[in-house]
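Annotators were shown the component list below and the corresponding predicted structure, then asked to write short factual statements about the assembly.
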Amino acid sequence: MSEQPVRVGLFVTCLVDLFRPTVGFAAVKLLEAAGCTVEVPRLQTCCGQPAFNSGDREDAKALARQVIAAFEGFDYLVAPSGSCAGQIRLHYPELFAEEPAWFQRAQQLAMRSYELVSFLVDVRGMNEVAARYEGAATYHDSCSGLRELGVKSQPRWLLRSVAGLTLKELPGAEICCGFGGTFCIKYPEISDKMVREKTADIATTGADTLLAGDLGCLLNMAGKLQRQGSRVRVRHVAEVLADMTDEAAPIGAAAETR
Amino acid sequence: MLATSHAFKSNVHDALVDATLQKALGTVKRGFQARRAEAVAKLPEFEALRDAGRAIKNHTLANLDFYLERFEAKVMERGGHVHWCRTPAEARETILQICRRLGAKTVTKGKSMIGEEIEINDYLEANGIVPVETDLGEYIIQLRHEPPSHIIAPAVHLVKEQVAETFRESHKQLDPARQLEDARQLCDEARAVLRQKFLAADVGITGANFLIAETGSSVIVTNEGNGDLTQTLTQAHIALASIEKAVPTLEDAATILRLLARSATGQEFSTYTTFSTGPRRSEDTDGPGEYHVVLLDNGRSAMLGTEFQDMLRCIRCSACLNHCPVYSAIGGHAYGWVYPGPMGSVLTPSLIGIEEAGNLPNASTFCGRCESVCPMKIPLPKMMRHWREREFEKKLSPPAYRMGLSVWAFFARRPALYHALSGMAARVLGWAGKRRGRFRTLPLAGGWTSVRDMPAPEGRSFQSLWAERRGRKR
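Structure shown to annotators:
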């Protein structure tokens, strides 16, 4: 691992900010362990994907400009989400294709923006974590991280060093869980069918824990598992890697079942 | 066919509660995926072929007028005819005139999506000519008066018991006590019945996978050989194709053929690949007496030069359908027009309007699997997003949704206000959900909680906790 401390701006993501601050703190802990100093720009809210994917380019651009300005002083932008990192890395430059000045700035930020776990492994060369988790976990590959950013082996690579954890591969791990941002509320019946197939696949693994790298997908899958009465515990992969599973109950679980 | 894309949501509901359809969809979807993956794994240059295929199509589309005119000249040189048709009505009329001139009573048909697009069967029937579909799947759904639900597997929405029932109802001339349990028996029966139709037909209509400018040939691929019988046994062969099927040379067609079957069925090559060039010459032992190409535009030339031009690279392999989790949940009919799945979600609004088909490009999670398997590397999610932009600009999306979006954007564009609000929301929802850790119902979140619980927030926003922590450090 490189010795030089690097300055990382943490892009918290709106879902982590509101639902699951533990994931943000887990990201900070992992980044610090990887030799980074971490700051959290106050001028961030959301990457703008809900607007972008709803065809509202004006709001999407306004939010992109906000993020670009807020993170310009950092060596890297890191987000505990493949979806938001993909938006910044791939779609910000696309949004400003016809505005050269902003395109340049978007491009500059895009090149320095990463999803958390792939940043730890690919950029910081992290090989292992100091963490313990008793359980059999299965891992869902969230679509944007997988197909836009190539996040596939990195979380598995680090999870193998978590003491007590066995990883059971999920059949159909690369198939969408049915979240899709506003899709899941615009087309709940289709989303329901997709997430039911996902929870059925999860059940076949026999795992007691479901992990993934995107909170949107996790909220969707946790919500469905719990509606179905499943006892599978659901967590963001960063919580396990940062050894912070004692700090919050699993997603959607009551505090006492911790 | 009468579009029902505007009723997408109710189509979806009907599809999801149809147990037989769900059974049919369940048994096929992973088969297609596994076979494609296997075929691609065996061909190390597959990625390079995708780039080559894309380049061929891009070049052709950039010079489409040139290649179509060259194609026409070559067809004429070989004694064939090309009919340029702007609209489905023109194409239908052209075909009817050819049939009438030849006194045709029955017409055999190879599979053609353009045939669906122009509703040629209904039109011929209304004019006293009997069209007979000869692709097994198409034959089955023709007997059932249904449109195809998939591009290369048109009857994929059916289980074999339904097919047996259809055959018993339609083939009254056969012994009612015959066995029709397995696929082999069904196939043999269709084969025997169709053989008579082939021999009796006056005109054969096929689609075309390629129109080769260099030679004036049309190319079809089939796995049943029905296309060959359709086009060689009749007085006239009519190849019905849309303008974007053109490729410059035979070699270009060969390059794309290497992608087509692997992407579609996982075969290295389709069982039959048939090149048709002009009518029968005096020294030929078989072939049609006349050769016609009906060339349909129907809105495609208007896509050139727009953000939807890339869609015209599509070779109709169905890989995007086969890998789409939405398609595999609802099947093809729910999309409400000729083309289902991701490619249909982009193409249908271009051909019949975003007002009718607005739901289609919205009903995607942008999971990106379609683009990742598309042999022509068509950026399908990006183009669905372009349709959402057009829809947003025209204010066609539901008012409540637009309102919600603009309220959210108002706060998201004002970080200080946003943090105050999200801090408050985290506290309120965290407190309300503290006991169970989740909500079964939540005001304004019916779309979410109708099918799943909503996990409760931990109780504080990250930004508020971070500010406190930084305050302590100071």
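Statements collected:
1. Chain B has a mean pLDDT of 96.
2. Chain B touches chain A through 66 residues (CB under 8 Å).
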